[in-house]
Design goal:
By secondary structure, the protein is mostly beta strands. It has one domain: Immunoglobulin-like (Sandwich). It contains 2 helices and 13 strands; from the N terminus they run αβββββββββββββα. The strands form 3 sheets. Strands 1, 2, 3, 4, 7 and 8 form a 6-stranded antiparallel beta sheet that branches. Strands 6-5-9-10-13 form a 5-stranded antiparallel beta sheet, with helices on one face.
């Protein structure tokens, strides 16, 4: 990767302090939604589902966690069950990587926010318990209109989704 960077070619990793590099090719966000009747109106809430990874000098017991913010307002938090792969299995690259799949904010943190949100990832070193912010992503939550098919095709509650174009742009940059 260093050679690619020296040649001026784009890379899919972002170097961080402490020998940890963010794997941008592994970063992905999605929503789990739930609709509730609040004051005789349907409102849709969501919890963020994230996939994220880092590689480099990663000690055992290291963990990844994230915070979802809108401006300075903290909306939700998640500590992720992290999987450390040695990488040297079956001739793979011997650089260890730590990744999370399907890491969600808790059901108690059903969020209703729309617009631009910030997801701040923190790496917790398993040897020293030192916390380092390794990445900050901006995602956009939008609403897609839906139709109540069972009732004369009348408009129904909107369904939130993560705008993928914002993810692609941040990965390329």
């Amino acid at each position: 990767m260093l050679t690619l960077a020296m040649m001026g070619l784009p890379t899919l990793g972002r170097a961080q302090t402490g020998g940890v590099v963010v794997d941008q090719a592994h970063t992905f966000y999605n929503l789990d939604t739930r609709t509730q009747n609040v004051d005789d109106q349907y409102k849709t809430f969501w919890q963020l589902r994230a996939r994220f990874g880092v590689y480099g000098e990663i000690p055992d017991r290291s963990v990844l966690k994230y915070v979802v913010k809108q401006g300075n307002n903290v909306l939700g938090r998640a500590s992720c069950q992290s999987i450390l792969r040695a990488g040297a299995i079956a001739g793979e690259n011997p650089v260890p990587d730590l990744y999370v799949n399907d890491c969600r904010t808790s059901r108690e943190q059903m969020l209703g926010a729309r617009g631009q949100l910030t997801v701040e990832w923190t790496f917790i070193n398993g040897s020293t318990d030192a916390e380092t912010v390794v990445d900050t992503d901006t995602i956009t939550i939008r609403d897609a209109p839906t139709v109540d098919v069972g009732n004369n095709n009348r408009p129904y509650y909107p369904r939130p989704y993560v705008d993928r174009n914002s993810e692609i742009l941040s990965t390329v940059l």
